[in-house]
Amino acid sequence: MDGEKGGEGGLMMENLKIAIVGAGETSLLAAATFGTVYPVIVFDPDRSKRARFDEKGIAFTDQASELADAGILLITGSKRPVYTLDGLSELCRIVGSHMKKGSVLIFEAPVYPGTTEETCIPLLEQHSGLAAGKEFFVGFVPARWQGGEAQGKVAKMRKVIAGQSGPVTDYLADLFAPVHDGGIYKAKSIRVAEAAQLLEIAQKEVNIALMNEVALTLNQQGIDTHDVLETANTRRGFIKLEPDLLGDHAVPWHGMDQFWCKGEQKGRQVAQRVIKKLIQNEVIIHEARITVLGVTREDGTSEAPEAGVIELVSELQEYGMDVQVADARLEMWQAECAGGVLLTKQEELLPAVSVILAVPHEAYRKAGWKLYERLLDGKSGYVFDVKSILERNEKPEKVTLWRM
């Protein structure tokens, strides 16, 4: 983009150092992706979050004063389940106090339509003393960062961008084009982009809620959900969705509580199913040892624990079971706890009466049935496969397999 754009100060492709504000769910992937083209630094006042970025060679700071060195500030916000308007407002106050004239601010955390322009911009103007649209510029970009195998698929999607004016939108399009090869879609306005992101999330949440109910109903009838999905998928145009009983809760965004079908107690439902199955097989529950594999997201977007897994563990413990938890990804950082749950290294897990494969990380997929035999007491017991990824025809004779 050449020349002056958008009023006093102008928009120029000059200082392209990007500061990602908030070490949240998608910050690591955003930093890694932008870092292939632009200089990047991640800011978060919580210094304890530095390790995961140091591991990837990504610059991290907990000093807000360093935001002044960046011409572009991408505000990602916190991890979705604890995302609040107060948290976003605090980030706006911090950024506004340290950004410089000519800065470009990009919001991507999901918010109620109008939040960026009615809440964020006034806060930025108040704390910076600068005028939006003339001395600094604002846009909104729905987050679509993904990890693992999903990253390539998402990169082929069109990137939605929106600015407070046409020149700002054009600037953002030029900024994102080198790191997003799926093409750029320019939304009509920031409000449209905000609403579109909420609709995307709502559609996903509603569909998952539907499949969760289907899975529970089918299970009551002794029908394997995965078999039903494979059969129904033979119809042209069928949308193959899967249950996600251990996914994150729906998000109570500001003004949006009534918008969602809330996914409460999904982990507890899984735990209660496991308890019921064990009792039906005459297992004495009190103080029986059970192993839960997988705590963090399968796609690698966060080291934070899945809310559903925490619920699962808590419910099992309330029934008096001795629960040991491991996570293939967290072991790389030798983490000792996540979400208040004590973690055990895989090699230190004691034999258990049952193993729950809660989050099927790649290591658990590749290990095959030998891993589960080793984790069971006497190579026999019960394996609960939440995502139905283990091969049934390779199951050892002494192992009982339960699936969604």
TrEMBL record:
<protein>
    <submittedName>
        <fullName>Nucleotide sugar dehydrogenase</fullName>
    </submittedName>
</protein>
<comment type="similarity">
    <text>Belongs to the UDP-glucose/GDP-mannose dehydrogenase family.</text>
</comment>
<dbReference type="InterPro" id="IPR036220">
    <property type="entry name" value="UDP-Glc/GDP-Man_DH_C_sf"/>
</dbReference>
<dbReference type="InterPro" id="IPR028359">
    <property type="entry name" value="UDP_ManNAc/GlcNAc_DH"/>
</dbReference>
<dbReference type="GO" id="GO:0000271">
    <property type="term" value="P:polysaccharide biosynthetic process"/>
</dbReference>
<feature type="domain" description="UDP-glucose/GDP-mannose dehydrogenase C-terminal">
    <location>
        <begin position="291"/>
        <end position="392"/>
    </location>
</feature>
<dbReference type="InterPro" id="IPR008927">
    <property type="entry name" value="6-PGluconate_DH-like_C_sf"/>
</dbReference>
<dbReference type="GO" id="GO:0016616">
    <property type="term" value="F:oxidoreductase activity, acting on the CH-OH group of donors, NAD or NADP as acceptor"/>
</dbReference>
<dbReference type="Pfam" id="PF03720">
    <property type="entry name" value="UDPG_MGDP_dh_C"/>
</dbReference>
<dbReference type="InterPro" id="IPR017476">
    <property type="entry name" value="UDP-Glc/GDP-Man"/>
</dbReference>
<dbReference type="InterPro" id="IPR036291">
    <property type="entry name" value="NAD(P)-bd_dom_sf"/>
</dbReference>
<dbReference type="InterPro" id="IPR014027">
    <property type="entry name" value="UDP-Glc/GDP-Man_DH_C"/>
</dbReference>
<dbReference type="Pfam" id="PF00984">
    <property type="entry name" value="UDPG_MGDP_dh"/>
</dbReference>
<dbReference type="InterPro" id="IPR014026">
    <property type="entry name" value="UDP-Glc/GDP-Man_DH_dimer"/>
</dbReference>
<dbReference type="GO" id="GO:0051287">
    <property type="term" value="F:NAD binding"/>
</dbReference>
<dbReference type="GO" id="GO:0016628">
    <property type="term" value="F:oxidoreductase activity, acting on the CH-CH group of donors, NAD or NADP as acceptor"/>
</dbReference>
